[in-house]
Design goal:
Length: 309
């Protein structure tokens, strides 16, 4: 395509669209395509949407269709090992390794939000991916399943509560199921992705001491491991009139089951990420004896964290 960006600008402006309006439409298209469409392609689409016919024997109607329907994401795709904190518009190829249960939560402004996460891996490593609000509906797709190859487009990277890198898919991000992959060798390797983290966690679980032994010996635990079940979550009004939240979990392994008590915003944050039967590691938690039942409990402190493994 020999027609230049400057020529395209002139042709569109000559149709009567103001320079301010054209720049507005260009910015809108840049946001819509998440930075993956060239300026030339954006101008062609704007021209078509405004009924402007570009007079050039070298440009056919098919060009517009190709610009609108096909972006070569292979050009932008990176491996997970290259992902760094604060990266934006990340494009990845990989496999869904595990899907967690969606959760609803109450924001500070009183509105209800939705969140779901899944474990994603490519040929280099794995990462948790977070979907928010309307993006949560993606899990209803029959293609959203463990083992499915997907392309993630327009994600951004940040650190989670456990200081691990996470990928978030906001309003402008998307997931492409059964993506076209130009590199056959890369596609073949993706088909054989296995969960390195799952194998690692299996080995770690065998070496960690059981819950029963740990709570008998210590009043403070640097780390404890098991499967969780959500027992109670509720809002509580204190005598002062202040509202807080209480989350009670049951943590189990082969040795015993123990209750975990989590208060305040920690309760909200944990509820966002866990589902029944998730395997978790809880760090920096206190061991207390319940004065009513005389049973041992685990109580979150300000330094406590919970991580799904």
């Amino acid at each position: 395509m020999s027609i230049s960006i400057d020529e395209l600008y002139r042709m569109i402006l000559a149709s009567g669209i103001s320079e301010i309006e054209l720049e507005k439409q260009v910015r809108h298209k840049e946001n819509e395509f998440g930075g993956f469409m060239s300026k030339q392609g954006i101008l062609f689409i704007i021209a078509k949407e405004n009924g402007i016919h570009i007079q050039s024997p070298e440009i056919e109607e098919q060009n517009y269709k190709e610009f609108e329907e096909k972006i070569d994401y292979d050009e932008f795709t990176i491996e997970l090992s290259e992902v760094k904190e604060d990266m934006k518009n990340v494009v990845l190829l990989g496999k869904i390794l595990k899907i967690y249960e969606p959760r609803e939560f109450l924001r500070k402004d009183g509105t209800v939000g939705k969140v779901v996460s899944f474990l994603f891996g490519d040929i280099t490593q794995e990462i948790k991916v977070i979907l928010w609000d309307e993006k949560v509906d993606l899990i209803k797709s029959e293609n959203f399943r463990v083992g499915e190859l997907i392309r993630i487009v327009g994600a951004y990277c940040k650190r989670g509560r456990q200081d691990n890198l996470e990928l978030h898919i906001g309003k402008r991000g998307k997931i492409i199921f059964s993506p076209e992959i130009g590199n056959k060798d890369f596609k073949d390797r993706l088909e054989n992705i296995d969960s390195v983290a799952s194998r690692k966690n299996e080995l770690e679980s065998k070496s960690m001491k059981g819950i029963s032994e740990l709570v008998k010996k210590f009043n403070y635990l640097k780390q404890i491991y098991g499967q969780v079940q959500i027992e109670v979550f509720k809002e509580i009004t204190k005598k002062s009139g202040e509202k807080t939240f209480l989350l009670k979990l049951l943590l189990s392994d082969d040795s015993t089951t123990i209750r975990v008590i989590i208060w305040g915003m920690n309760a909200i944050e944990c509820l966002k990420i866990i589902s029944d039967q998730d395997t978790v590691v809880i760090s920096n938690v206190a061991v207390r004896t319940n004065s009513y039942t005389n049973e041992k409990e685990l109580v979150f402190t300000k330094n406590s964290t919970l991580e799904i493994v």
